[in-house]
Design goal:
heterodimer; A: alpha+beta; PH-domain like; 4 domains; 10-stranded antiparallel beta sheet; two-stranded antiparallel ribbon; 12 strands; globular; B: alpha/beta; Rossmann fold; 5 helices; 7 strands; binds magnesium ion; Rab-GAP_TBC_sf (chain A); Rab-GAP-TBC_dom (chain A); GTPase activation (chain A)
Chain lengths: 719, 214
Amino acid sequence: MLLRLVKSAAYIHPTTVAAENVPGYLIVASTREDQSLYIGWIADSLLGPGIRKWLLEMELKLVESTSVRATGAFRDLWKSSQGRSHSFKVALTAVYSVEFRPPSSSGWWHGSLIVYPRDDHLVLPAVFLHDAQCPSTVLREKILSRNFDPFDKEVGLHWGGVDVLNCLKGAAELRRTEANPSVWLVNPTLDDLRNYNGDGVVETPQLNPDIPGGTGESLWEATKWSVLAKVADFTARTSKFVSGVLNSGGDGGAVPRSLLADRVVDDFDAARVYMAKWSLGVKQEAQRYQLTNRLDSAYITTLSHEVGFDVSRDQQFTPTEMNVATQRGFTLTALKWRSLFDLQGRLSVTVGEVKDFIFHGGVAPEIRSEVWLFLLGVYPWDSSRDERVQISETLRQSYLELKNEWVFRTPESYDTEYWEDQVFRIEKDVLRNDRDIPLYKHNTGDGQTASEDASEDQELEEAGARSHWIIKNPHLLKLRDILKTYNVYNKDLGYVQGMCDLVSPLYSVVQDEPFAFWCFAHFMDRMERNFLRDQSGICDQMITLTELVQLLLPELYEHLQACDSENLFFCFRMLLVWFKREFDFTEVCSIWEVFWTDYYSSQFQLFFALAILQKNAAPIIQNLTQFDQVIKYFNDLQGTMDWHDLMVRSELLFIRFKKMIDVMDRKQELATTTITTETSEEHRAPPNESQHLRRLLSRDIVIQREALIADGTPKSDLR
Amino acid sequence: MLQFKLVLLGDSSVGKSSIVHRFVKDTFDELRESTIGAAFLSQTIKVESEDQQEVVIKFEIWDTAGQERYKSLAPMYYRNANAALVVYDVTQEDSLNKAKAWVEELKNKVGDEDLVIFLVGNKVDLCEGSDNEDKRAVAATLAKQYAEDQGLMFDEVSAKTGHGVKEVFQAIGQRLYDTKKEELATRQRGNGNDGQVDINVPRPSTNDTTGCCS
Ligand SMILES: Nc1nc2c(ncn2[C@@H]2O[C@H](COP(=O)(O)OP(=O)(O)OP(=O)(O)O)[C@@H](O)[C@H]2O)c(=O)[nH]1
Ligand SMILES: [Mg+2]
């Protein structure tokens, strides 16, 4: 066991009488195996003089270092203290939030913190930090004032709670809530983040500015239904919290009491004041929202107008749908990602929850190499850490076997002419691939320097004018080997131009040849349909996209028809290599990982393409009249598009599409159950029978493989 | 101004995109990425009429992807073309065979006498100088003979050095102008228009529906 933080002079105040305060120690500790944190409080009365002395020493030591080993005696005490004299400990993973209430600057009251476990039934007492008596807080303050920078805006009032907060921040994602800035959520779920986020699009409550008095109660009354009810909509957790507040506020109609005030009597914050602050926080948040989000609301107005429904016929987007689609700021960070796994390294939340994070916020670059393995199906989502170790070994081994198949084969055993042609094509494409990014830029042995020393130049000279065709950059060599091995792995398909574009980002993120190969092989499961000899897979997608445009952007469709462009031929490249050429390298990584989630549809790339069309519909309709112009227009879009905005639009377009299909289905039902069918009612000529469109609602990937029939002629079939 | 459509065909990595960029932007990029689908570029040149007047010609150029697998898309691009540049790599023997296959296809599918086909051997810079002569895999005389038999225009170029590239387009422009000028003259007379006019000269559409998803 490791100690991370000790705060002496930490008191529990069971009553308002100061003499009855119980002294003790606030402790943050971690297990040694998996570093998971516990926070707890232990009563001074349980300690013997030896441990007390040792603990005080450790407290000071921890001001400078991040952890110290705990003695066996302490460990036993820590275990046995539970529940005695108010002592408690709780794993950080079981904590929902921590409230840090700073001391009053005038010194009227002490700072305190309250830990709220995820389990509602567990109520922990507030711990008051008597800073002046606490040696570690005093010492830290000294250090801070030595380095005091008057211009650093981050520096607030220092108190013991700040040290606790910083210690916890190292081990979990802590996020301050906007509604009550002293409350920090621990490893919040995406829904928590959405609800508590200040930039949220939670519908603005109609606050009446003329509310008399401004007492806590009236403000509370004014806001509770408009705001809390909305917040309550979102998650079970929040609604439980809110309904708890509402219930306790409701009885007798008098003073709303907070859950905690109920149980922990706290000498300064009476329940009424607490609630007033809380509701004030909510009110401020609402106002801040109105003030700062003018831009956002303009954006939302634009979106509903452009992507939205024909108001006379369809339903509008709900505020939640808008809210969810436009909030794309919560990236899956390393801390967050780690917090999602249990001790066995098994995912402890649903896959849907993880995918929600990735779909809406993306993956932080430093954990991509791990997360992508899950996203692409190399690691099963429900695997444990041990199982993954096993899987990696197997995969490395089988990669080697596949690779050896071409490395060590003899000329008699295969069609050398075909193979050499394949290798020739692969090498030509590898050499032309993404050479502007640093990893692949220099074609030299170390891949880092622009040109090599004189002896190498000599070699180049000998190789003659074709020397620039020799691949030397180690990463380019790996791309080549992966593609050659894939050629052996999927013999029917062969190498097709564009495949190099697909493997390149994977390799750049994973940077491990066998793993990059397996990522690629899994990615190709869904991409193979793009490379069939008869082009049937890509054509299916173009037809689907055309039908989507017909259904959702009928005006644009009509115009494209007039320009002979309704086959959307200009989208060919976008769909073939998933927008790889239209966006820059890092953007492509962000876009692909969203697609891989299959969050709404396994063919979300079509909605992204649709969003591009939608966004450019007006200029196209106004200015272009010919097939060539349209193609040229789309060629020139390269490098000019904002993928974030397009992703928001894609999501809204999907939702709209889904609603339209639902409406059609209901009509269908009606039509079959009633005898009289309304023939007069005009609806957009819908390709509603289309299997193409219906398939868009599925999250299962579409697999179409190249297959060679007996006589050797290629044929692609739908499996 | 006259406007002509031109399409580039030929095996992958023979240098189609490089030739177009040399012609349009006068640049060469060793690391240019492979083409997917097709790229569209345009450039104007001037040719001389019989009465020594300058005529501006605008080329609308479709640069296609070379790999066999994308062959079924090519008709989209060549179906309205006035000229086709069929490119091979003089250091790759097989690329000439691919070029011949393209010529066959154009003759069969387009079947228009007026379509100007220009066979181009690229990358001659690689076999310049006596010690590099062995890099050459296709003899110029061989390709030239083939071109003559088929009634194609022919030349060797280098997109890297720029050698011969402009001349190819110049020759195509001149040829197109010469074959079209009669037709143009009648039209201009008909319009009673004697100055510079914007005239599109599309080849009659072949009603070819071999496109991808049509
Ligand atoms: N030495 C030399 N290299 C050339 C020349 N033209 C092109 N290359 C090189 O050949 C490679 C392929 O050129 P591209 O222009 O991309 O070929 P492409 O025909 O457009 O190929 P696809 O788009 O795949 O059909 C590039 O790496 C060029 O650097 C040339 O005239 N001389
Ligand atoms: Mg090209």
